[in-house]
Amino acid sequence: MSGYFHSITLDYEKCMGCTNCIKRCPTEAIRVHGGKAKIIGERCIDCGECIRVCPYNAKIAVTDTLDKLSEFKYKIALPGPTFYAQFKEEENVENILDAFLSIGFDDVFEVALAEEVLSFMTRHYLSTNKYKKPLISSFCPAVLRLMQIKFPDLLSQVSPFMTPREVAAMLAKEEAVKRKGIPYKDIGVFSISLCPARVTEIKQPMGLKTSAIDGVINISLVYKDILKELTKNHKKEKNMNLQKATGIGMSWGYLTGEARALNYGSVLAVCSIQYVASVLEEVERGELKDVDFLELRACSGGCVGGPLGIQNPFVGRVKLKYFVEKYRTKTPYYQEKEMSDFYQQGRFISTEPILPRPIMMLDEDMSKALLKMERLDKITNELPGLDCGACGAPSCQSFAEDIIRGLAVDTDCIIKLKKKGQILAEEVLDLMRKTPPAMGDDSLKEEGEGKINDGGIKLTLQEIKELLDAEVLVGHEQLSKEVNHAFVADLMSDVLAFATSGSLLITGLTNPQVVRTADVLDIAAVIMGRGKSPTPEALKLAQESNIPILTTKFILFEISGRLHARGIRGCIEKVGST
After folding, report:
1. Which pTM does this prediction carry?
2. Would you kindly state where each structural domain of the chain is located, as residue ranges?
3. If I label 400, which of 181, 356, 436, 463 is the partner at 20 to 30 A Cα–Cα?
């Protein structure tokens, strides 16, 4: 698995082990151990979700730099439509393209031109071929890598055409050879990208042996220079005629753009990697057979929402739509006859199959793998099923896999660790209560066998209800229950770590996770502050689990103060006293 290249890497100095990334990764490729995240290469699809959600900017995308331009005599920039959307004040795409010629490039070729060609070719393919519905767009490399890992059976339904950037690179080089007479090997084509998956795409292309693109440059490396050129007062005339694409190709930059450019049959457009995975699950189950084509994008809103983007994606979408409308009626650079020739000649067809990427090989020996699978099921059933992430894995299922692979131990689960700690504490107390026959000292038993006075004052739920002017939503029959400790938190991993059995849980959360956590820890009752009520699902779960739920108008601070004034103590204080 070490043969996989990845553009996304981790800055260990910045990583604080916050676990935000492990929850958002669509392939569960991240773990947090020792206070630092770790990316599992065989699972990573370079979608950039971890870059998007990391509050410490610890996930970074490694791309080529402008220094690589010096390796070629003739340098061509490949900006996609989303690049134009980063300049909200600019009214003319020609100016944006012209600015590339001032920062080290000799020519520019719009990716939108290739998208117009592929719109025509895909439409012709759908109308003249028999294929298994729905045909899945080959545009987004992150989606294709997700399919390699989680939906390998659907790879045969991917469109047979190359990606627009590959097509653009090939066309750009061919035109440079014709117009300039420059040898093919001296031409370098560089993609300007908002997407880390594009970097991986050219290093390890899917559907091709080698990529026609010679490098991918992060938009941030050219943005300031381009902006500087745009703000200059150019007195020279711009006669380059670099802008050739129409609004049809430019619309591919946001969701539904490819579908509208295709203009054929029934098309479903889906964005955000989690929703894409959900739709692919439906396709795998044999549904959506009435859909001709699936436009799938890993980023929210399409490529305009790429994780490396400069502009707010919503503002960028509006700006891109402006350009789409402005250039919608422009005469196409490639005429229908030329595009038809491309199709008839079999141009821009993928030459290699897209193969699955196995990630769950428990053992190369089949018999051992089956035994490990049985053990995996057993471990998973023994885990609490909360998927809290406190163990450093995104779910209990993935944590069980880590145990099987030797990457974790069962006590990394805070619930199991806590239970073992309670058992150990009880054993120690039992030993303390036993007195050697020669001593005959019963002083430890004066307060009653097994009873420890921790200084807390007990209140019934009825007294707490009156104290907080609370409404009982579940558990009217349990108001005589006594409690003397409480814990306040909105983060369930903190509750799992520090709250004790039989205590009150005071929270502002209202979701089912609160009830599940209370059930696992045997919490006496849940008090929801600020007048909040549980969601219908949480309320139903509380009734089934017989967990009292109270709600009060007071804020969490006021609830804690009132209870503390009446003698209720905190759970951490109780742990310290024992």
Report:
1. 0.77
2. 1-61, 66-130+161-262+302-344, 415-445, 459-577
3. 356
